[in-house]
Amino acid sequence: MPDNNKHETNQKKQQLEEYTVEDQGKKLTTNQGLKVAEDEFSLKAGERGPTLLEDFHFREKMTHFDHERIPERIVHARGFAAHGEFQVYESMKEYTKAGFLQDPSKKTPVFVRFSTVAGSKGSGELARDARGFATKFYTEEGNYDLVGNNIPVFFIQDAIKFPDLIHAVKPEPHNEIPQAASAHDTFWDFVANNQESAHMVMWTMSDRAIPRSFRMMEGFGVHTFRFVNEQGNSYFVKFHWKPVLGTHSVVWDEAQKINGKDPDFHRRDLWECIENGDYPEYELGVQIVPEEDEFKFDFDLLDPTKLWPEEDIPVKLIGKMTLNRNVDNVFAETEQVAFHPGHVVPGIDFTNDPLLQGRLFSYTDTQLIRLGGPNFHELPINRPVCPFFNNQRDGYGRHTINRGQVSYHKNSLANNTPEPASEKEGGYVHYQEKVEGHKVRARSESFKDHFSQATLFWNSMSQPEKEHIIQAFSFELGKVQSQSVREQVVEMFAHVSPELASGFAKEIGVTPPEVRGSGVTKSSPALSQENSTKSPKTRKVAVLVDQEFSSKEVKRVLDVLSEVGIQPEVVSSRFGVLKGADGTELEVQHTFLTADSVLFDAVYAVGGSKENKSFIQQAKAFIHEAYAHYKPIGLSKEGKAYLNSEEMLNEAGVVVADDDQSEQFVEKLIQSITTHRHWDRNIMM
Asked: Can you name the residues that pair with 83 across neighbouring β-strands?
């Protein structure tokens, strides 16, 4: 008898081989077979002009990329969101006619979605990655979307390279490994051969790429936009979200363990804080440059790989956003929300940033495949709060039932309605920027400095932050198999900082580079998280307690911690109610099996029965991991026994209670928790 299964397998193999393509050594073409002469730059009206719609290569490349994944988002698939409101502090009439930025007494509804970029919908939330920070303002003039990240710059300068970037950072296609990680060959090969990525890579290798929570994460509009006022005057503007609790992160070892212990750590944190009434708050800041000052800086204002140093162009805080309501249904709201940087209102306009220009096409195109057609704006989460009328009809997912026989402009049968609104009536009029130039695929010379701001970022870091960046490069490149790629990356970042490049070169088996450097000595203190706001509010403290605990001061300490906004949670060997020596009762909220030190910001070790060896062993491990992550440690008199050495008692951030110093103890513990991390601690494991 013939082996039919083997025959079918070979037949299928032959079918697959017919469609197998080997790209190596071939010339780049379009999908129609046309050879492409340039794949770095989109077609523009002049080197600094807008991208042209006739660029068929860009449109084909971007359209194909936008439709590569269904149904989850190609990027930013792993996300979580909440509702809230925004209120401006004072009228911004001098700079913009945007209605929601005029009246300090008016609250504008918002919907905010936070996300990781590279991972799939089911990936862990503590990946080393940029984070999306997208805000939809439901204004009376229509929806305005501020679609940004928690990092103010990006990897590339021209949108035509976005598919290449994401192809490089996504799991490698031959084995679909690794998930939600940039620590692999193709990403670093892309970095080494696309050196405009240097600045963004510095940010993603820093602590900014592993935030403590969405609530302690900055947001940026990334691009340079325009404010336009009633007089028609234009100002360049960059948008910032500043978290009221400050900007804070976890350490890399901690991040990896959190992904294993609780891959939903960030969304759980956001959900619980809103449910508890600890509403996340962010101040909206703007950097504003008059149009006539466009060329007064040593970088191009339109370059998306560059930031505007806050010391040179101050951030003006103009309003506050408060997230105060969780979603009712994650799919209907978080997954179906459709953001687009082209959703603007009068008074906010675009610039010729070539990355922004490409996004203005790409986002609508993406929604068409994700949400099933052109009517995604009719989904409840996407509907504007103001009425909308036009001649668009039918299509997948149509909700509106239009009456009448007319659906075109101009018309006489319906008195030419709906008719365009004049500028005075609120009609959107694009800023009339003069544009002239040859049709070219090129990039302005002013975009070609790739290292100065990467060096500025390095110079601005504290010593612990610099050490973490070196460790991040060492880890990431330690996962790269190609020796050539490792060497290229070391050579590339020698132009940023010889100290940095030498620091990770010796860890990955590459000869340290000869001295390079960009020659930049300037720093920007605002870029260091060490200079961020520090607050004890909403910090979680694991309180390690066992039966027969010495309860004289414990209840009072927990009450004081709660009064200042700290969240103490009792951890023990098993669930139930614990009784102290004087009868005080504490209910256990977590066990050592269901909790871990990486899920808390600090530890307060109370202790209990000296006979419970299991509790003592688990408490010691819990405390020592928190200690190794530089977290605040509070110890009762009995809790001192859980440390391995007397020397640890004198280390930074370790606070010990004595019978006659109870008031001082809780004050010192709160101060230790406010500090967040104690980097000058001598780690002795």
From this structure: 111, 325
